[in-house]
Amino acid sequence: MEKNFLFAANDGYAKFVGVTIKSILNTNPIGGGKCVFHILTDGISRSNQEWLNRICTGYNAEVKVYIVDEDNDLKSLESYRGNRYTWYRILFCKYLDLEEIKENGNGVLLYLDVDILVDGCLDDLFRMDMKGKSIAACPDTACNPTRYEKWNVKNYIGAGVILFNVDYWQEHHLPEKCIEWGCHELNDEDNDMPDQDTINVICNDTKMLLPVKYNFLIWFQKHYGDLFNKYNPGFEKSVSEALQHPVIIHYATANPWHHFASDILHGKTWKWVMLWYKTALSIDFYHFVRYVVPAFRNSIVNMINR
């Protein structure tokens, strides 16, 4: 069975996408089906595209790049931290060959943020029966509960890892509904996570919740006892299980390429950061050095400033 992955990134983030791709290829057997990595972007240099393709050498895998027409596709949607790349994920219906995904890939598409590492087999995700469901994702308890209440959202999910049912999104015109709702309902007060809010609202009644191991944020180890609230019954057990062996590790707010372990880990999540660097090193030494040196320098400066 073919596994289809989706990324949204500009040229500057291509090198981080490469580490995520390498982690997937390292942990998902060659005989488990072809891996297709779709990247929605406003442009990736030829050298970076060639480098991404070299990572796939020797594997049953390929990279496909699509240039997004942002002005026409996204209209007046709110930016996030000065750009609108995070909105690109909802545009897959326009750019990807959905019929091929339906025929060869069980009709599902796995979106991943670029600050992610895969450390386990994903077969169970790609075999999921998503009939009648739009997305599958993990609950996001890091958000202030007022976000759930403001939009009257049930089971508010994090948008860093989303399994899309491509047929449902196409048939129910969800990209158009997301854009329309975002343009009319969001304002400057909502620009913290505008695309995540929109996906939660539009998919409110058609979500499937995934175990936390499929979107394990490394700061869960530091803030383990602060995550549980009335909106996420049973979440504590899911986090406890994920701590033993997360399958998809998410470095949100603690990107390894910005911080070295001593600056952010407090001794608890060293192994996850070292796994990221080990994966980068398995691509080539040059890219490993590019990550480690700036991150180490930033950490030293931060510690001195304290």
So what's the overall shape?
globular
β-strand percent reads 5-15%
* Range of helix content: 40-55%
**What series of H and E elements makes up the topology?**
EHEHEHHHEEHEHEHHHEEHEHHH
Number of E-type strands: 10
Major β-sheet profile: 7 strands, mixed
Given helix and strand content, the structural type is alpha/beta
Mean pLDDT: 86
**Uncertain stretches:** none
Based on CA atoms alone, the radius of gyration comes out at 19 Å
Terminal residue distance: 51 Å
With strands numbered from the N-terminus, the spatial order across the biggest sheet is 3-2-1-4-7-6-8
Number of H/I helices: 14
Walkthrough of the structure:
- It contains 14 helices and ten strands.
- With 306 residues, the chain is an alpha/beta fold.
- Helix 2 (46-55) links the parallel strand 2 (35-41) and strand 3.
- Helix 9 packs across helix 10 and helix 13 runs antiparallel to helix 14.
- It is globular.
- The mean pLDDT is 86.
